[in-house]
Amino acid sequence: MSLQHAHGFDLEARLRERERAGLRRDLAPVDSVAARARVAADPKDDQPTFGDEQLVFAANNYLGLAGDERVAEAAARAAADIGTGAGASRLVVGDTPAHRSLERRLAEEKNTERALAFSSGYAANVGTITALDPDVIFSDELNHASIVDGSQLSGGDVEVYDHCDADALAEAMADRDTNASHDESWLVVTDSVFSMDGDVAPLEAICDVADEFGAWVMVDEAHATGVYDGGIVGERGLEHRVDVQLGTLSKALGAQGGFIAGDEVLIEHLLNVARSFVFSTGLAPPAAAAAERALDLAPEQRDHLWRNVDRLREGLETMGYDVWGDTHILPIVVGDRADAVALDERLREAGLIAPAIRPPTVPEGTSRIRLAPQATHTDADIDRCLAAFEAAGEEVGLL
Fold first, then answer.
1. Which of 55, 60, 200, 371 holds its CA 20 to 30 A away from the CA of 87?
2. 223 tagged catalytic
3. 7 in catalytic set
Protein backbone atom coordinates (compact mmCIF):
# COMPACT_ATOMS: atom_id res chain seq x y z
CA MET A 1 0.00 0.00 0.00
CA SER A 2 1.35 3.42 -0.90
CA LEU A 3 2.10 5.87 1.88
CA GLN A 4 -0.67 8.24 0.80
CA HIS A 5 -3.26 5.49 1.44
CA ALA A 6 -1.76 4.15 4.65
CA HIS A 7 -4.27 5.97 6.79
CA GLY A 8 -7.26 5.66 4.49
CA PHE A 9 -10.57 3.85 4.93
CA ASP A 10 -11.26 0.40 3.50
CA LEU A 11 -14.94 0.98 2.85
CA GLU A 12 -15.22 -1.99 0.52
CA ALA A 13 -14.17 -4.30 3.36
CA ARG A 14 -16.74 -2.71 5.64
CA LEU A 15 -19.45 -3.26 3.06
CA ARG A 16 -18.41 -6.89 2.56
CA GLU A 17 -18.66 -7.45 6.30
CA ARG A 18 -22.18 -6.01 6.32
CA GLU A 19 -23.03 -8.29 3.41
CA ARG A 20 -21.78 -11.35 5.30
CA ALA A 21 -23.77 -10.35 8.37
CA GLY A 22 -26.94 -9.88 6.34
CA LEU A 23 -27.03 -6.18 7.21
CA ARG A 24 -26.29 -4.51 3.88
CA ARG A 25 -29.11 -2.34 2.64
CA ASP A 26 -30.00 -0.76 -0.67
CA LEU A 27 -32.40 1.83 -2.00
CA ALA A 28 -35.86 0.71 -3.11
CA PRO A 29 -36.81 3.03 -5.98
CA VAL A 30 -40.40 3.56 -7.08
CA ASP A 31 -41.92 5.75 -9.77
CA SER A 32 -43.91 7.96 -7.40
CA VAL A 33 -43.77 9.10 -3.80
CA ALA A 34 -43.22 5.95 -1.76
CA ALA A 35 -45.14 7.43 1.14
CA ARG A 36 -48.41 6.96 -0.74
CA ALA A 37 -50.55 3.93 0.04
CA ARG A 38 -50.12 2.65 -3.52
CA VAL A 39 -47.24 3.25 -5.92
CA ALA A 40 -46.26 2.18 -9.40
CA ALA A 41 -43.67 -0.58 -9.51
CA ASP A 42 -40.20 0.41 -10.64
CA PRO A 43 -39.84 -0.88 -14.22
CA LYS A 44 -36.12 -1.51 -13.58
CA ASP A 45 -36.89 -3.76 -10.63
CA ASP A 46 -36.53 -7.43 -11.61
CA GLN A 47 -38.72 -8.54 -8.72
CA PRO A 48 -42.11 -9.86 -9.82
CA THR A 49 -44.91 -7.55 -8.74
CA PHE A 50 -48.66 -7.57 -8.44
CA GLY A 51 -49.42 -6.08 -11.82
CA ASP A 52 -47.99 -2.58 -12.14
CA GLU A 53 -48.92 -1.39 -8.65
CA GLN A 54 -47.48 -2.06 -5.21
CA LEU A 55 -49.06 -1.45 -1.82
CA VAL A 56 -46.94 0.49 0.66
CA PHE A 57 -47.18 -0.63 4.27
CA ALA A 58 -43.78 0.65 5.38
CA ALA A 59 -44.10 4.45 5.26
CA ASN A 60 -44.65 6.76 8.20
CA ASN A 61 -47.28 8.66 6.24
CA TYR A 62 -49.87 7.42 8.74
CA LEU A 63 -52.67 9.80 7.80
CA GLY A 64 -52.04 9.57 4.06
CA LEU A 65 -51.47 13.31 3.82
CA ALA A 66 -48.20 13.21 1.86
CA GLY A 67 -50.27 12.55 -1.26
CA ASP A 68 -53.24 14.75 -0.36
CA GLU A 69 -54.07 17.34 -3.03
CA ARG A 70 -55.04 19.93 -0.43
CA VAL A 71 -51.63 19.67 1.24
CA ALA A 72 -49.89 19.83 -2.13
CA GLU A 73 -51.89 22.94 -3.06
CA ALA A 74 -50.80 24.68 0.15
CA ALA A 75 -47.17 23.88 -0.65
CA ALA A 76 -47.55 25.12 -4.22
CA ARG A 77 -49.06 28.42 -3.09
CA ALA A 78 -46.21 28.98 -0.65
CA ALA A 79 -43.65 28.17 -3.34
CA ALA A 80 -45.27 30.69 -5.68
CA ASP A 81 -45.79 33.42 -3.08
CA ILE A 82 -42.65 33.06 -0.94
CA GLY A 83 -40.19 30.80 -2.77
CA THR A 84 -39.08 27.19 -2.87
CA GLY A 85 -36.44 27.72 -0.19
CA ALA A 86 -35.90 30.02 2.78
CA GLY A 87 -32.63 31.21 1.29
CA ALA A 88 -30.81 31.66 4.58
CA SER A 89 -30.88 30.96 8.29
CA ARG A 90 -34.02 32.14 10.02
CA LEU A 91 -31.84 34.56 11.98
CA VAL A 92 -30.52 36.19 8.80
CA VAL A 93 -33.25 36.68 6.18
CA GLY A 94 -34.94 33.26 6.19
CA ASP A 95 -37.81 33.96 8.60
CA THR A 96 -40.93 33.98 6.42
CA PRO A 97 -44.67 34.31 7.10
CA ALA A 98 -45.00 30.56 6.44
CA HIS A 99 -42.65 29.78 9.34
CA ARG A 100 -44.35 32.14 11.77
CA SER A 101 -47.84 30.91 10.87
CA LEU A 102 -46.81 27.27 11.24
CA GLU A 103 -45.19 27.88 14.62
CA ARG A 104 -48.28 29.61 15.98
CA ARG A 105 -50.37 26.65 14.82
CA LEU A 106 -47.95 24.13 16.37
CA ALA A 107 -47.97 25.93 19.71
CA GLU A 108 -51.76 25.81 19.63
CA GLU A 109 -51.71 22.11 18.77
CA LYS A 110 -49.30 21.32 21.60
CA ASN A 111 -50.90 23.75 24.08
CA THR A 112 -47.62 25.58 24.72
CA GLU A 113 -46.53 29.20 24.64
CA ARG A 114 -44.36 28.87 21.54
CA ALA A 115 -42.90 26.48 19.00
CA LEU A 116 -39.80 26.53 16.82
CA ALA A 117 -39.47 24.76 13.46
CA PHE A 118 -36.25 22.96 12.49
CA SER A 119 -35.17 21.52 9.15
CA SER A 120 -35.74 17.96 10.45
CA GLY A 121 -36.71 16.06 13.57
CA TYR A 122 -33.12 14.83 13.78
CA ALA A 123 -31.85 18.42 13.81
CA ALA A 124 -34.42 19.34 16.45
CA ASN A 125 -33.31 16.55 18.79
CA VAL A 126 -29.59 17.06 18.37
CA GLY A 127 -29.83 20.85 18.51
CA THR A 128 -32.11 20.95 21.53
CA ILE A 129 -30.29 18.44 23.72
CA THR A 130 -26.93 20.06 23.05
CA ALA A 131 -28.35 23.55 23.60
CA LEU A 132 -29.80 22.54 26.98
CA ASP A 133 -26.31 21.30 27.91
CA PRO A 134 -27.51 18.95 30.68
CA ASP A 135 -25.08 17.56 33.22
CA VAL A 136 -26.89 14.22 33.23
CA ILE A 137 -29.24 12.67 30.65
CA PHE A 138 -31.50 9.75 31.52
CA SER A 139 -32.44 8.04 28.27
CA ASP A 140 -34.73 5.11 27.45
CA GLU A 141 -32.66 2.28 25.97
CA LEU A 142 -34.76 2.23 22.78
CA ASN A 143 -34.76 5.97 22.12
CA HIS A 144 -34.32 7.14 18.54
CA ALA A 145 -30.80 7.52 17.15
CA SER A 146 -31.15 11.30 17.07
CA ILE A 147 -31.69 11.33 20.84
CA VAL A 148 -28.69 9.05 21.32
CA ASP A 149 -26.51 11.25 19.10
CA GLY A 150 -27.69 14.49 20.71
CA SER A 151 -27.01 13.06 24.15
CA GLN A 152 -23.49 12.03 23.20
CA LEU A 153 -22.75 15.37 21.54
CA SER A 154 -23.98 17.31 24.57
CA GLY A 155 -21.05 16.09 26.63
CA GLY A 156 -23.29 15.23 29.59
CA ASP A 157 -23.21 11.93 31.43
CA VAL A 158 -25.71 9.53 29.86
CA GLU A 159 -27.60 7.06 32.04
CA VAL A 160 -29.57 4.53 29.96
CA TYR A 161 -32.56 2.99 31.74
CA ASP A 162 -34.58 -0.12 30.84
CA HIS A 163 -37.17 0.37 28.15
CA CYS A 164 -40.41 1.98 29.36
CA ASP A 165 -39.49 1.19 32.97
CA ALA A 166 -40.18 4.11 35.31
CA ASP A 167 -38.96 2.05 38.28
CA ALA A 168 -35.60 1.55 36.57
CA LEU A 169 -35.49 5.30 35.91
CA ALA A 170 -36.18 6.02 39.58
CA GLU A 171 -33.45 3.60 40.63
CA ALA A 172 -30.94 5.20 38.25
CA MET A 173 -31.81 8.65 39.57
CA ALA A 174 -31.58 7.53 43.19
CA ASP A 175 -28.16 5.98 42.59
CA ARG A 176 -26.97 9.15 40.90
CA ASP A 177 -28.47 11.42 43.53
CA THR A 178 -26.23 10.12 46.32
CA ASN A 179 -23.18 11.88 44.87
CA ALA A 180 -24.81 14.64 42.83
CA SER A 181 -24.35 18.33 43.49
CA HIS A 182 -27.51 20.34 43.91
CA ASP A 183 -26.75 22.57 40.92
CA GLU A 184 -26.57 19.73 38.40
CA SER A 185 -29.08 19.85 35.54
CA TRP A 186 -30.87 16.55 34.84
CA LEU A 187 -32.85 15.76 31.70
CA VAL A 188 -35.07 12.72 31.13
CA VAL A 189 -35.56 12.00 27.42
CA THR A 190 -37.95 9.48 25.93
CA ASP A 191 -39.90 8.79 22.78
CA SER A 192 -43.64 8.74 23.37
CA VAL A 193 -44.48 6.18 20.66
CA PHE A 194 -41.53 3.91 19.88
CA SER A 195 -41.27 3.43 16.15
CA MET A 196 -40.01 -0.17 16.08
CA ASP A 197 -41.97 -1.73 18.97
CA GLY A 198 -45.17 0.28 18.56
CA ASP A 199 -45.50 0.81 22.31
CA VAL A 200 -45.98 3.95 24.42
CA ALA A 201 -43.78 5.28 27.21
CA PRO A 202 -45.37 5.50 30.70
CA LEU A 203 -45.24 9.28 30.61
CA GLU A 204 -47.24 9.89 33.78
CA ALA A 205 -44.90 7.69 35.82
CA ILE A 206 -41.84 9.24 34.18
CA CYS A 207 -43.08 12.72 35.08
CA ASP A 208 -43.67 11.56 38.68
CA VAL A 209 -40.08 10.34 38.95
CA ALA A 210 -38.71 13.48 37.34
CA ASP A 211 -40.70 15.66 39.74
CA GLU A 212 -39.31 13.75 42.71
CA PHE A 213 -35.73 14.43 41.66
CA GLY A 214 -36.20 17.87 40.13
CA ALA A 215 -35.40 16.83 36.56
CA TRP A 216 -36.72 18.19 33.29
CA VAL A 217 -38.65 15.93 30.91
CA MET A 218 -38.27 15.95 27.13
CA VAL A 219 -40.63 13.83 25.01
CA ASP A 220 -40.09 12.99 21.34
CA GLU A 221 -43.54 12.82 19.72
CA ALA A 222 -42.28 12.09 16.21
CA HIS A 223 -44.58 9.10 15.69
CA ALA A 224 -47.48 10.56 17.67
CA THR A 225 -47.73 14.01 16.06
CA GLY A 226 -50.97 14.25 14.09
CA VAL A 227 -52.07 10.71 14.94
CA TYR A 228 -53.15 11.70 18.45
CA ASP A 229 -54.81 15.01 19.32
CA GLY A 230 -51.91 17.00 20.75
CA GLY A 231 -49.73 13.89 20.67
CA ILE A 232 -49.57 11.46 23.56
CA VAL A 233 -48.56 14.33 25.83
CA GLY A 234 -51.70 16.27 24.90
CA GLU A 235 -54.00 13.26 24.96
CA ARG A 236 -52.92 12.53 28.54
CA GLY A 237 -53.02 16.15 29.67
CA LEU A 238 -49.32 16.34 30.48
CA GLU A 239 -48.47 19.58 28.66
CA HIS A 240 -47.63 21.38 31.89
CA ARG A 241 -45.45 18.54 33.21
CA VAL A 242 -43.36 17.97 30.08
CA ASP A 243 -40.81 20.74 29.66
CA VAL A 244 -39.79 20.04 26.06
CA GLN A 245 -42.03 18.54 23.37
CA LEU A 246 -40.55 17.49 20.05
CA GLY A 247 -42.47 16.55 16.94
CA THR A 248 -41.93 16.01 13.25
CA LEU A 249 -43.69 17.38 10.20
CA SER A 250 -42.47 14.53 8.00
CA LYS A 251 -44.49 11.57 9.20
CA ALA A 252 -48.25 11.81 9.83
CA LEU A 253 -48.26 15.42 8.58
CA GLY A 254 -46.78 14.38 5.24
CA ALA A 255 -44.33 17.28 4.88
CA GLN A 256 -40.74 17.79 6.02
CA GLY A 257 -39.06 19.16 9.14
CA GLY A 258 -39.29 19.01 12.91
CA PHE A 259 -40.21 21.29 15.79
CA ILE A 260 -39.84 21.96 19.47
CA ALA A 261 -42.77 23.23 21.56
CA GLY A 262 -42.47 24.69 25.04
CA ASP A 263 -42.49 27.90 27.01
CA GLU A 264 -41.25 31.29 25.84
CA VAL A 265 -37.87 31.09 27.56
CA LEU A 266 -37.10 27.66 26.13
CA ILE A 267 -37.81 28.74 22.55
CA GLU A 268 -35.85 31.98 22.93
CA HIS A 269 -32.91 30.00 24.25
CA LEU A 270 -33.04 27.51 21.36
CA LEU A 271 -33.23 30.09 18.60
CA ASN A 272 -30.13 31.71 20.09
CA VAL A 273 -28.10 28.62 20.99
CA ALA A 274 -29.24 25.49 19.09
CA ARG A 275 -26.55 25.11 16.44
CA SER A 276 -28.71 23.01 14.12
CA PHE A 277 -31.14 25.94 14.01
CA VAL A 278 -28.77 28.92 14.09
CA PHE A 279 -26.39 27.62 11.44
CA SER A 280 -28.88 25.95 9.11
CA THR A 281 -31.01 27.34 6.31
CA GLY A 282 -34.58 27.67 7.47
CA LEU A 283 -37.20 25.06 6.72
CA ALA A 284 -38.43 25.39 3.13
CA PRO A 285 -41.59 27.58 3.10
CA PRO A 286 -43.60 25.04 1.03
CA ALA A 287 -42.89 22.39 3.67
CA ALA A 288 -44.03 24.76 6.42
CA ALA A 289 -47.25 25.59 4.58
CA ALA A 290 -47.92 21.93 3.79
CA ALA A 291 -47.49 20.93 7.43
CA GLU A 292 -49.85 23.64 8.64
CA ARG A 293 -52.53 22.53 6.20
CA ALA A 294 -52.00 18.91 7.26
CA LEU A 295 -52.61 19.86 10.89
CA ASP A 296 -56.05 21.13 9.87
CA LEU A 297 -56.85 17.91 7.99
CA ALA A 298 -55.48 15.44 10.54
CA PRO A 299 -58.65 15.02 12.64
CA GLU A 300 -60.75 13.83 9.71
CA GLN A 301 -58.15 11.19 8.80
CA ARG A 302 -57.70 9.58 12.20
CA ASP A 303 -60.85 7.43 12.21
CA HIS A 304 -59.86 5.88 8.87
CA LEU A 305 -56.39 5.10 10.20
CA TRP A 306 -57.60 3.41 13.38
CA ARG A 307 -60.16 1.31 11.50
CA ASN A 308 -57.38 -0.01 9.26
CA VAL A 309 -55.10 -0.63 12.24
CA ASP A 310 -57.76 -2.65 14.05
CA ARG A 311 -58.61 -4.76 11.00
CA LEU A 312 -54.97 -5.58 10.31
CA ARG A 313 -54.10 -6.43 13.89
CA GLU A 314 -57.11 -8.69 14.31
CA GLY A 315 -56.47 -10.49 11.03
CA LEU A 316 -52.75 -11.04 11.66
CA GLU A 317 -53.23 -12.26 15.22
CA THR A 318 -55.96 -14.64 14.06
CA MET A 319 -53.44 -16.16 11.62
CA GLY A 320 -51.00 -16.69 14.48
CA TYR A 321 -48.54 -13.86 13.96
CA ASP A 322 -46.90 -12.25 17.00
CA VAL A 323 -47.95 -8.59 16.72
CA TRP A 324 -46.32 -6.27 19.24
CA GLY A 325 -47.36 -2.85 20.50
CA ASP A 326 -50.66 -1.15 21.05
CA THR A 327 -50.49 1.80 18.66
CA HIS A 328 -50.88 2.45 14.94
CA ILE A 329 -47.50 0.77 14.35
CA LEU A 330 -47.76 -3.02 14.01
CA PRO A 331 -44.43 -4.86 14.43
CA ILE A 332 -44.74 -8.49 13.35
CA VAL A 333 -41.85 -10.12 15.17
CA VAL A 334 -40.49 -13.32 13.63
CA GLY A 335 -37.18 -13.43 15.52
CA ASP A 336 -34.63 -14.80 13.05
CA ARG A 337 -33.26 -12.29 10.55
CA ALA A 338 -33.24 -14.84 7.72
CA ASP A 339 -36.93 -15.58 8.29
CA ALA A 340 -37.70 -11.86 8.28
CA VAL A 341 -35.83 -11.36 5.00
CA ALA A 342 -37.57 -14.39 3.44
CA LEU A 343 -40.96 -13.07 4.52
CA ASP A 344 -40.07 -9.65 3.09
CA GLU A 345 -39.16 -11.23 -0.26
CA ARG A 346 -42.41 -13.22 -0.49
CA LEU A 347 -44.46 -10.15 0.39
CA ARG A 348 -42.69 -8.09 -2.26
CA GLU A 349 -43.44 -10.76 -4.84
CA ALA A 350 -47.10 -10.30 -3.93
CA GLY A 351 -46.77 -6.54 -4.51
CA LEU A 352 -46.51 -5.52 -0.85
CA ILE A 353 -43.77 -3.14 0.31
CA ALA A 354 -43.01 -3.98 3.95
CA PRO A 355 -39.23 -4.41 4.34
CA ALA A 356 -37.64 -6.57 7.01
CA ILE A 357 -36.24 -4.68 10.01
CA ARG A 358 -33.06 -6.30 11.30
CA PRO A 359 -30.25 -5.59 13.77
CA PRO A 360 -28.77 -3.13 14.55
CA THR A 361 -32.04 -1.24 14.09
CA VAL A 362 -33.70 -3.74 16.46
CA PRO A 363 -32.11 -6.12 19.00
CA GLU A 364 -30.83 -9.54 17.97
CA GLY A 365 -33.56 -12.18 17.94
CA THR A 366 -36.34 -9.67 17.25
CA SER A 367 -36.13 -9.21 13.46
CA ARG A 368 -39.51 -8.22 12.15
CA ILE A 369 -41.77 -6.79 9.51
CA ARG A 370 -42.92 -3.37 10.66
CA LEU A 371 -46.38 -2.65 9.28
CA ALA A 372 -47.58 0.94 9.13
CA PRO A 373 -51.12 1.12 7.73
CA GLN A 374 -52.34 4.45 6.38
CA ALA A 375 -55.68 6.21 6.57
CA THR A 376 -55.84 6.05 2.77
CA HIS A 377 -55.63 2.26 2.52
CA THR A 378 -58.94 0.88 1.33
CA ASP A 379 -60.75 -2.21 2.61
CA ALA A 380 -59.51 -4.01 -0.51
CA ASP A 381 -55.94 -2.98 0.32
CA ILE A 382 -56.26 -4.40 3.83
CA ASP A 383 -57.71 -7.64 2.46
CA ARG A 384 -54.86 -7.95 -0.03
CA CYS A 385 -52.29 -7.30 2.71
CA LEU A 386 -53.75 -10.01 4.94
CA ALA A 387 -53.91 -12.49 2.06
CA ALA A 388 -50.26 -11.79 1.22
CA PHE A 389 -49.18 -12.36 4.82
CA GLU A 390 -51.09 -15.61 5.05
CA ALA A 391 -49.59 -17.00 1.85
CA ALA A 392 -46.06 -15.73 2.61
CA GLY A 393 -46.15 -17.00 6.20
CA GLU A 394 -47.12 -20.49 5.09
CA GLU A 395 -44.45 -20.55 2.38
CA VAL A 396 -41.69 -19.44 4.77
CA GLY A 397 -42.89 -21.82 7.48
CA LEU A 398 -43.97 -19.23 10.02
CA LEU A 399 -47.64 -20.27 10.10
1. 60
2. yes
3. no
Of the candidates 119, 148, 98, 132, which has an alpha carbon nearest to the alpha carbon of residue 244?
132
Sorted by sequence, the CB contacts under 8 Å of residue 325 that are 6+ apart come out as: 194, 197, 198, 199, 331
Q: What is the arithmetic mean of pLDDT over 113-125? A: 98
d(CA 173, CA 186): 9
- Confidence label for 21 from pLDDT (cuts 50, 70 and 90): confident
328 is catalytic: no
Note whether 127 and 264 are within 8 A (CB).
no
Q: Where are the alpha helices (DSSP H) in 198-336?
A: 203-213, 231-235, 264-273, 275-278, 285-319
Catalytic residue among 99, 110, 144, 223: 223
Q: Which of 146, 154, 192, 195 is catalytic?
A: 195
pLDDT digits (tens, 9 = 90+) for 48-83: 444 567 899 999 999 999 999 999 999 999 999 999
Complete domains list, the chain, with CATH: 25-67+300-396 (3.90.1150.10), 86-283 (3.40.640.10)
Reference 50, options 352, 295, 256; nearest CA is 352
Distance separating alpha carbons of residues 305 and 308, to the nearest angstrom: 5
Q: Among 99, 251, 328, 377, which one carries the catalytic annotation?
A: 251
**295 three-class SS:** helix
